[in-house]
Design brief:
Elements (H helix, E strand, L loop, with lengths): L1 H12 L9 H6 L5 E7 L5 H6 L3 E8 L2 H10 L6 E5 L11 E7 L7 H11 E11 L6 H22 L22 H11 L4 E5 L3 E7 L11
Parallel strand pairs: 1-2, 1-4, 2-3, 4-5
Antiparallel strand pairs: 5-7, 6-7
Helix pairs in contact: 5-7
């Protein structure tokens, strides 16, 4: 369609990351200081480096060897962060964490297995924060998607205004996959695995999930 082609050309000329847009929000959900953090699907390491300004140590993991190499190259001196090529469902070198973050990755993973893994890797009192994508399956969600279209154009223009090409913010570069889980289904399963979880549909085709593990939390499926 001509309109979609025009939008794609505009976005290519005015790149910005919908995921990085939520990094400040993620940091607001976390304590001022914490011990150990895990960033799942860390990509080039932007969020992991932010977490390292508050954490005693941060592990960033990703399944892409090339992006992990880039993350290691850009790691600032003195920051308590390391990056590994790993599958989150089998990764166990780091033990348990006070904070786990996961941005635009959950829809690449088996939903229940991933949520269970995150739950089990958190220490009591630990915080899980997810920014994800899911199928829009209600009118409210579809409306947020429509509102996001003009806002996406405005944000892209503002963020790139006056910048030279080399200075422009980097758009998302990871391999994308269309989500195959509807948002209402995701909410239902998240509430089953993570009692008390808070979810909210957001602009720019994202949702957010925040869960704090309290002592005594167990898998509701085992009760």
């Amino acid at each position: 369609m001509p309109l979609l082609d025009a939008l794609a050309r505009f976005n290519a000329a005015h790149p910005w990351s919908h995921n990085a847009h939520y990094h400040p929000w993620i940091m607001r959900q976390l304590p001022d200081r914490f011990d150990r953090a895990l960033d799942v699907g860390c990509g080039s390491g932007d969020l992991a480096r932010l977490l390292a300004t508050r954490a005693a140590h941060v592990h960033g993991i990703d399944s892409d060897e090339r992006i992990i190499a880039k993350a290691r190259e850009s790691a600032g001196p003195g920051l308590p962060v390391d990056f590994s090529v790993a599958d989150v469902l089998s990764y166990g070198e780091g033990g348990r964490y006070d904070v786990i973050t996961c941005v635009a990755v959950l829809h690449h993973l088996p939903l229940t297995d991933a949520l269970t893994r995150f739950r089990d890797q958190l220490v009591p009192g630990g915080t899980l924060v997810i920014v994800g994508v899911a199928q829009e399956d209600t009118r409210v969600q579809q409306l947020l998607g429509l509102v996001s279209v003009p806002l996406n154009l405005i944000y892209g223009w503002v963020k790139n205004r006056g910048r030279r090409v080399a200075e422009k913010p980097v758009a998302m570069t990871a391999v994308t996959r269309h989500p195959d889980v509807a948002y209402t289904e995701l909410v239902r399963e998240a509430r089953r695995v993570l009692p008390g979880v808070r979810l909210r549909r957001r602009l720019f085709w994202r949702y957010t999930l925040v869960w704090k593990k309290v002592r005594g939390d167990v898998d509701p499926g085992t009760l």
